[in-house]
Amino acid sequence: MLGYRITFSMMAMIRHGSHEKIRPLPRGVILVPTSSVDRAGMIEATCGENRVGVFQRDLMERAERIELLDDLMTPSP
Q: What's the domain count of the chain?
């Protein structure tokens, strides 16, 4: 499974039920995509227990693609 590790802080839309907040994601955070890119250029992902929306362009510029272990959702060595 592929994921992303944030290499430079970036903004994300954090979802809590029906509410959304714009918050920064710090360097080192792991995102696991849960959707493909929508019309607005955003990707849905999980970040720990949070659901987030991030722009694909931000991921390409501010994150590195990594392979995740399927059973633990942690970066492989």
A: 1
The two three-digit tokens of residue 30, written as one number:
């792991």
pLDDT digits (tens, 9 = 90+) for 27-37: 999 999 999 99
pTM of the model: 0.81
What's the one-letter identity of residue 64? E
Q: Can you list the pairs that 56-64 forms with residues at least 24 positions away whose Cβ atoms lie under 8 Å?
A: 58/10, 58/11, 59/4, 59/10, 59/31, 61/8, 62/6, 62/7, 62/8, 62/9, 62/10, 63/4, 63/5, 63/6, 63/7, 63/8, 63/10, 63/31, 64/4, 64/5, 64/7
Domain of 39, CATH number, reads 2.30.30
